[in-house]
Structures are given as structure tokens and as C-alpha cells.
Design brief:
CATH superfamily of the largest domain: Aminoglycoside phosphotransferase (APH), C-terminal lobe
Radius of gyration: 20 Å
Oligomer: single chain
Number of domains: 2
Bound molecules: 2-acetamido-2-deoxy-1-O-phosphono-alpha-D-glucopyranose, magnesium ion
Low-confidence stretches: none
CATH architecture of the largest domain: Alpha-Beta Complex
Shape: globular
Length: 341
């Protein structure tokens, strides 16, 4: 790691290094010094063409600089060779970010104000990019949020799984199949061309917002690896998934999982505060579907990963992906009760 730090022009001995973050994909470290930084090792098995991330971010940042100079877009710090990323001996790319003082991340929403502020911050990004040329962006992970594909991947994982895992996951598998109607709804919605392709963040979980530690207002969005073409339901849906339940996707006690209407309403208010004027009536009528779709996609992805032997998401204990899947399916049940279509 020292060689990596040095390639960004920093002296390794000036920093204390701590592993931070709750992400499932990359490894993130804080370099604590007089001025602190965040150093991240990108997971090249997930982002197989990391250079696409850099090219998308450059397009967005140029556009924002020209059209919304006041918008704070968190960019990585170039290396001494003026590259966005530096590769280690194993071929993993690393990048460096400024560390914003007096900011915090949270993994569950406590107040309506947090929900409003975070949702309007994510929505602001999509709104500022409303007029950008979507076709010039590439997908950093192909068909990342394609629910129909994720269902097929779940079925393939089921076919390839060993019997022990299949047995352990029996009830979860039944539940995953029970919500298949959402795949049909998704295919209809997308197939009819009713939603506009936009540039979306695609990972709008609550922990991807930096809040001001004192005012508890959103400062900026982070984790822009999946900034790419997508539909608004992906962003709104992942917010519903992660803001509205009082516990995170890691919670094992499913009796704590409920639909918090006051948080949902505040989230929607915050989102529409920025997005209302650029959304079509067809998009607005898809609002209740968003949270269900994204909660379901995560249930399918966690289940498929469990069945495949926990190869994708970082896990700390055996069965963790199954807990996450069960947690998401429970929340999905609550969403279907609360938001009938
Ligand atoms: C992953 O690594 P992280 O936590 O930013 C995943 C998201 C999921 C999320 C669930 C590239 O994001 O799609 O919503 O876990 N990112 C990727 O917590 O697969
Ligand atoms: Mg992410």
C-alpha cells in the first residue's frame, strides 16, 4: 500500500491507516494525517473495465462544471502521473479521494429531515444531468439493474448450487419465486418505453450520502462507480429500500422491519423537490413500483450469491447473504402491503 500512497505524491509515514466503510465490493481506507484522504482499492472482478468509470465521471464532471458550477461533484485526486487510478502488482486499481472534514455517513435513517435531505441530494444529481447526452456514457457493469436478467441469474444459481446450500435456502427460494410478478411488471414498464433513460447514480443507498456532522444535512453523494444510463426507478427504489426500513439490510431480527410511512413521504417529497419538473406523468405513475423493484432485485442478488458460494458480496459470517436476502424479502412484503398498485 505504501507504494500506492507514494504514487499519489503522499508520504506513507505521514498517515495512520484505518479500514473504513460498509461497502460490499471495494476495500476502503482512511489515511489520517494533518490533511486526511480516502484511499480505495477497486474490485476489478466486479468492475471489469474500471476505465469506463473514469470516462463516465469525466463526462459528468465536465458537464456539471460548465452548466452547474456550484454543484459539488466529488472527484478522485490524480496520481503524480496524472492518472485517475494506480494499478498494484496484482492488477487492482486504486484511487484517492479528498476526505471532507466534519462529515459522516449513516446506515439507517432516523429522521424525516435526513430522508428529505438525502433524497433531494440524490435527485439533484439526476436533475443536473437531465440534459446530458446519455448515449455518450457506457455501462460500468452491463445490465446492472435489469430485473429480468437478475431473475435469470437467480435461476441459474439455483440450478448450479450444491444441495446443502439449496436446502439451507429453501424458504428464501420459495419467497423469491413468489414475487415473480414484479419481473413481469418490470418487463411491461420497460418494454413499453414509458420511462426515459437518464444518467442515474444506481447505488443510492443511504450510506452513499455524506452528511454534515453538525447540521445533519446532506453535503454530497459518494460512490459514483455506477453513474451511468438508467431509469429513475433504480435511484428512487434503492432509497426506498434503504431509508424506509428502520434497520439496515444486515439486521437479523426481522420483526424490526417495518414500513415507516412518515419516512417514505419525506423521501418522496425530497426527491420530487428536485425532480418533479423534469418527470413525465408516466414516470410519476411508476413511483410506487420503484422500491419494490429494487428491494426484490437485492433479494434475488443476495440469494443467488449465497447459492453460488458467496463469491460476490463481502461476508463476515456464514449465511450472511441469506440473512440479507431474508431481510429484503420481509421488507418487500411490507412494501407490497403499504403501496398497493
Ligand atoms: C453493493 O459495495 P456497495 O455497498 O457500494 C452493490 C449494490 C448493492 C449494495 C447492497 C457494484 O454496493 O448494487 O445495492 O451492495 N454494488 C455493486 O448493499 O454490486
Ligand atoms: Mg457501490
Amino acid at each position: 500500500m505504501n507504494a500506492i500512497i507514494a504514487s499519489f505524491g503522499l508520504r506513507p509515514s505521514d498517515y495512520a491507516i484505518d479500514r473504513i466503510g460498509t461497502g460490499h465490493i471495494h476495500e476502503t481506507y482512511k489515511l489520517k494525517g494533518e490533511k486526511s484522504f480516502v484511499l480505495q482499492r477497486v474490485n476489478k472482478n466486479v468492475f471489469k473495465q474500471p476505465e469506463i468509470i473514469a470516462s463516465n465521471l469525466l463526462l459528468a464532471s465536465d458537464f456539471l462544471n460548465r452548466n452547474f458550477p456550484d454543484y459539488y461533484f466529488l472527484r478522485s485526486i490524480p496520481s503524480i502521473n496524472k492518472t485517475e487510478m494506480v494499478y498494484d502488482a496484482e492488477g487492482f486499481p486504486w484511487r484517492l479521494f479528498p476526505c471532507l472534514e466534519n462529515t459522516v455517513t449513516i446506515d439507517k435513517v432516523d429522521t424525516r429531515e435526513e430522508a428529505f435531505s438525502a433524497a433531494s441530494e440524490f435527485a439533484l444529481l439526476t436533475r443536473c444531468l437531465d440534459k446530458i447526452e446519455v448515449g455518450s456514457f457506457r455501462e460500468t457493469i452491463p445490465q446492472f439493474q435489469d430485473l429480468a436478467l437478475r431473475y435469470r441469474q437467480f435461476e441459474i444459481a439455483l440450478t448450479c448450487s450444491n444441495n446443502e446450500r439449496k436446502h439451507e435456502a429453501e424458504q428464501i427460494i420459495v419467497l423469491c419465486k413468489r414475487f415473480y410478478h414484479l419481473v413481469k411488471n418490470y418487463n411491461t414498464l420497460i418494454g413499453n418505453g414509458l420511462l426515459r433513460l437518464r444518467i442515474t447514480h444506481n447505488d443510492t443507498k443511504i450510506s452513499n450520502i455524506l452528511f454534515d456532522a453538525s447540521t445533519r444535512k446532506a453535503v454530497c453523494v459518494i460512490d459514483l462507480d455506477t453513474l451511468m444510463p438508467g431509469y429513475f426507478i433504480y435511484d428512487l427504489g434503492d432509497m426506498v429500500r434503504t431509508f424506509v426500513s428502520p434497520v439496515s439490510e444486515e439486521e437479523k431480527d426481522f420483526s424490526k422491519i417495518i414500513f415507516r410511512k412518515e419516512i417514505y413521504d419525506a423521501l418522496l417529497e425530497g426527491y420530487l423537490f428536485q425532480m418533479d419538473s423534469v418527470m413525465s406523468p408516466e414516470e410519476k405513475s411508476a413511483i410506487p413500483f420503484a422500491g419494490k423493484m429494487m428491494t426484490y432485485i437485492m433479494a434475488l442478488r443476495f440469494t443467488a450469491d449465497y447459492l453460488s458460494g458467496d463469491v460476490y458480496y463481502h461476508t463476515d459470517y456464514p449465511g450472511q447473504n441469506l440473512v440479507r436476502a431474508g431481510n429484503q424479502l420481509k421488507f418487500l412484503e411490507k412494501l407490497e402491503e403499504a403501496l398497493p398498485e
